[in-house]
Amino acid sequence: MSSQSAGIGCRDLRVHADGRELLNVPELHVASGRTLAVLGPNGAGKSTLLRALGLLSSHRVSGQILLDGRPATRSMMRHAIGAVLQRPILRRGTVAANVISGLRFRGVSRREAHIRARPWIEALGIEPLAGRDARSLSIGEAQRVSLTRALAAGPRVLLLDEPFSGLDSTTRADLLADLRAALTGQPTATILVTHDRQEALALAEDTALLIDGRIRQHGPTAEVLDHPDDAGTARLLGYTNLLPPALTGRTHTLVARPEHTHLVLDLPAADPTLAPPLDPPLDPSDHIDDVRPVIGTLRRTVALGVATRVDVDTPTGPLTCLHPGDLLAAKLPPVGSEVRVRIRQARPLIRADEHHRHDKPCRT
């Protein structure tokens, strides 16, 4: 077995149900010691992919699932994977008994299981809970126990199906940090299914964007999250403002996040900063720090407490601006007014435009 094949993967993976194709992944590999985040909207097929890779699917699955470069069987997977789901599933008994249950399932003696589980109990901070009845735990505590149990068993593959989705922000942040520290240096191939790009950034070296059952982008997390290929991946990554060349005068379609899109308020009569900038050559890896103001019509404003959302209609579609804090009504023009919108830190969809010109599908 080569080091390149160690981990979990698939070839020509397809999942069908009720005559419909739910998933189509030509190839995917997660190396031992690395974490892949599978990021996608609801209904994209993320959990379907996770179940198929773990040979846990109840649907019709075709293609090959590979474990350490070899075709996997259910028996192999049963002993190789650890799984943590959205809702923690704990057995009756104490927290300590739950943690060692994964090791006991693998034939480890009770004494040895306690010894091997101890470092993980410390790493995930559940020592104070060890003697408690598992059914008395909060959801955040129960999820810590689930993660500890999965890691203590020493899985070759760890499958995480949105394990942070039901947690409050503080509990989630603490558990993300502890899990990242626990996984560092471990020879485990980890797959995290999530719809939250911050979770991907916190935990995963690599990220795959899954939309409509197909992987649209795959690569290093920082690169994928900041370089959408097309309008679909841009929306998934929070770049919800689409700015075609007809609107900006730029060569390529641009995308921008609402927090980088602001209404121009108290416009001076002669503000040189609002002159249309020159259109320099674009590097796909660079932010465009400024775009000439876009003209539109103010449709509505909504105070959200920590921010104020401003919706503007333009000739090519709507734009959403997000201003920090509460904007005073006196500062805002009336609904229906012509307004200017300033866009900062836009991204060019160069590859998408090139594919469109050559009538090619988006990269997968």
Give a count of the beta strands, DSSP E runs of length 2 or more.
18
From the coordinates shown, what is the CATH architecture of the largest domain? 3-Layer(aba) Sandwich
Please, how many helices?
11
Q: Structural class of the secondary structure composition? A: alpha+beta
CATH class of the largest domain: Alpha Beta
Radius of gyration: 24 Å
Q: Which topology of the largest domain does CATH recognise? A: Rossmann fold
* Outline type: globular
- Going across the major beta sheet, what is the strand order? 6-7-8-3-9-10
The low-pLDDT segments are: 268-285, 353-364
- For the record, what is the CATH homologous superfamily label of the largest domain? P-loop containing nucleotide triphosphate hydrolases
Quick tags:
OB fold (Dihydrolipoamide Acetyltransferase, E2P); 2 domains; alpha+beta; Rossmann fold; 364 residues; 6-stranded mixed beta sheet; globular; 5-stranded antiparallel beta sheet; disordered C terminus
Care to describe what's here?
Helix 3 packs across helix 4, helix 3 (95-105) runs parallel beside helix 5 (139-152) and helix 4 (110-123) packs across helix 5. The strands form four sheets. This protein has a six-stranded mixed beta sheet, with helices on both faces. The protein contains eleven helices and 18 strands. It is globular. It has two domains: 7-226, P-loop containing nucleotide triphosphate hydrolases (Rossmann fold, 3-Layer(aba) Sandwich), CATH 3.40.50; 238-353, OB fold (Dihydrolipoamide Acetyltransferase, E2P) (Beta Barrel), CATH 2.40.50. A hairpin with a 2-residue loop joins strand 4 and strand 5 (70-71). Mean pLDDT is 87; it is low at 268-285 and 353-364. By secondary structure, it is an alpha+beta fold. It has helices at residues 46-53, 74-80, 95-105, 110-123, 139-152, 169-183, 197-203, 221-226, 231-236, 245-248, 350-357; strands at residues 7-17, 20-31, 35-39, 60-67, 70-71, 81-84, 157-161, 189-194, 206-211, 214-220, 241-243, 254-256, 261-263, 291-303, 307-314, 317-324, 338-343, 347-348.
